[in-house]
Design brief:
The structure is a single chain. The chain has three helices and six strands. The protein has about 150 residues and is an alpha+beta fold. α1 runs parallel beside α2 (about 50-65).
């Protein structure tokens, strides 16, 4: 779905859920919604504000309930990765699950691990690679690329 989405705005969440439900009905269902990134879908909110981060998390839960799907927000670690993700600390407490991804620039391999899980095994980990794929050419004849994922879970 194109355009700005503010997960903190209940009216926009209802509108987004309705659009997603229509597409899901045409394509056989919906199980995962990806919000890329938390900051970009915060509608100008402050991720350091407990109130605004709380509104965001409430919006995520509402979207999940309305669409009967898992909602995944992509977010970034802070400057000190050992301290966890950017933003107010109340966000971590509210998470059902956190998956941490780290990249090895030498091998281009990315490792992932469940770094927090409220209801499941948190020892699951694996790796993946993003493999480039040319999907067409632009108007100037330059390649348009995307990628596909390969990897495993341990």
């Amino acid at each position: 779905i194109e355009g700005a989405v503010s997960v903190r705005d209940g009216g926009l969440i209802d509108e987004l859920a309705a659009k997603l439900q229509l597409r899901a009905a045409r394509h056989g269902g919906l199980s995962l919604i990806v919000l890329d990134t938390l900051n970009a879908t915060m509608g100008g909110g402050d991720e350091n504000s407990p109130k605004e981060l709380g509104e965001y998390l409430t919006g995520m839960r509402r979207l999940s309930q309305l669409c009967n799907a898992f909602v995944l927000a992509i977010h970034h670690l802070g400057k000190d990765a050992a301290r966890g993700f950017r933003g107010h600390s109340s966000g971590y407490a509210a998470l059902d699950m956190q998956i941490t991804v780290e990249a090895d620039e030498n091998t281009r391999r990315r490792t992932w691990r469940i770094s927090k899980s409220r209801d499941s095994d948190d020892s699951v980990r694996g790796w993946f690679m993003l493999n480039p794929l040319e999907v067409g050419k632009d108007a100037d004849g330059a390649p348009v690329t995307s990628c596909y994922v390969s990897g495993n879970a341990e």
